[in-house]
Amino acid sequence: MRFLKQDCRTEWAHWLMLGALSILAFFYNLPSSLFGVTEGLYAAVTETMVRTGEYVHLSLHGQSYFNKPPLFFWFQALSTKIFGWGETALRFPSALLSFGTVVVTYWVGRTLYSATAGFWAALVVITSYVTLWFGQMAIIDPVLTFFMTLGILGLVRAYFQEGTSWWYVVGFVALAFGAMVKNLHAFAMPVILFLVLLWICRDRTPLKSSAFWVGLMVFVGLLGSYYAYLGQEFIQHYVLKENVQRMTKLAGDTQGSAFDAYFGKRPIMWYGFVVWFDFFPWSLLLPSGLLVLWTQRPLQRYPREAFLLMWVLGYFLAFSLFPEKHERYLMPMVPGVAVLIGYFYHRVFETRDLEVWKSAMYKPTLGLLSLLCLVLVFLAPFLLHKKWNLPTDVFPWWYQLTILAGIGVLLYSMARKRVTVALRMVGVLSVALMVGVVVFVVPGIHAVASPKLIMTEVQSYLHNPNDPIRTFQHWNWRSDEDLYYWQHVHNGAGVIGGERSDQHALEVLEHQVEQSGSLIILMTERQYGEIVNPSPKLSTTVLRKFLRPKKTILLVSIALKA
């Protein structure tokens, strides 16, 4: 009884810690400006849907939008009805379901191994860079990740725990919602993974379960009804045309094939390079976890370990074979990697299998982690200044001192061969790095380079705050977020000299200034220095500089020379 009470207290402590960290990671920056990776595009679709009342046939800037199904936008629309229109409402579904992914990952780790495995797996989800950066954004990938992971939980609980076959229904319902949010691969990847496990284990028991087939029929019924409701036009454009093209070509590229993409800017092994950064700092333990897992010979004797190995490697292979590659596409892979790290901690903390840990080259691994954390403390401020123009003192001295102290404890634990203490310090450092990203880096970036900042600053300089926000010559420097704030929040934007040569665009600009007497307009530093400023007819004054990665945007006041 005493041990049972102690386990309950430990579990409550786990949940309190994970809950507090999740709130900080996913909800702290919700009110910040929409910033990137199609947040503005999806917000524009949702705003148009709510304003027009057209919830089935989506549109973007006056044209039909078939790139994604509407379920995600329904989530955003419902959130805006509850919280009012704004960044918090648009991001809330992603943040809430990112927290849901933490909870579901905990239960997957606990179902397969132990509460220890579940806790450390959930901590990996919270503190990995890819989750921190994309988990709160108003994009589809965090929502897709939740439903795919919940589908995995349904399958593993039904298969590995007796008397829980009804979890098959839960799993298939979750996978149906995943396919309704984005694509059929949300269903195909987990189910193929599960069927391969059954084939390896020579086990047909799930296929004889009525709950399995009921779940599958519910999946077919939900998805079929959904597509029938959306109509033939959506099925033709999205289900048939869009999906086939994405499997065979890069998005927006009607000439290059998938084979061409494998040797292009983001080749077939591109994820093999970025995974080390996207899963940092836990990625340094990934080789050790795979080594420990492989030494079990899981394909022969251990179905749980076999499932985990196929989960990690199978997802990585599948995503690598997709022609279109982005860091956020790796989000559904995070829970599998997290459970692998949780399994590694389970072997050390629960089974006390320290010999396995010693065979996994722990000294080089933790030594490299210490070195990288040390480099981050001193080098990261300069890298952030170079890329985002953040001040070099973005991290306060006490934060840097805390990281250094953690590195010192980690090195001391390694020297004294205190394996469990060293592994706990990896968790402490990961939480400290998470705090740095959430509390200092993200707010710092939004303070100097956010699209909302540009809009509010431009409004303050306009003769009339309701005047359109004008840009010069072309849109090639703006992002979806800029356009969202100008057209859907400010309700007015325009291009002067759009899609024209430099000389013709300048002539159009001069004509506009002659008609209005003066003009306030946005342009790039190159446009200003090479096209506008040399004009003998125009008198220009730079009112404001907006520093963006790889370019500087200028707000310029233009009048005719006397």
What would a concise description of this structure say?
The chain has helices spanning 2-27, 39-52, 71-83, 87-112, 115-127, 129-134, 141-160, 167-181, 185-201, 210-230, 232-248, 258-261, 270-278, 286-295, 298-301, 303-321, 334-349, 354-359, 362-388, 397-415, 419-449, 451-461, 480-489, 502-516, 525-532, and strands at 59-60, 63-64, 469-472, 493-496, 518-524, 538-548, 551-560. By secondary structure, the chain is of the alpha/beta class.
Strand-residue proportion: 5-15%
Helix count from the secondary structure assignment: 25
Count of spatially separate domains:
3
Low-confidence stretches: none
Q: Whole-Å distance between the termini?
A: 91 Å
Helix percentage range: 55-70%
Question: What's the total count of β strands?
Answer: 7
Sheet with the most strands, sense and barrel status: 5 strands, mixed
> What structural class do you assign from the helix and strand content?
alpha/beta
Strand order of the largest sheet: 4-3-5-7-6
Q: Any idea what the shape is?
A: globular
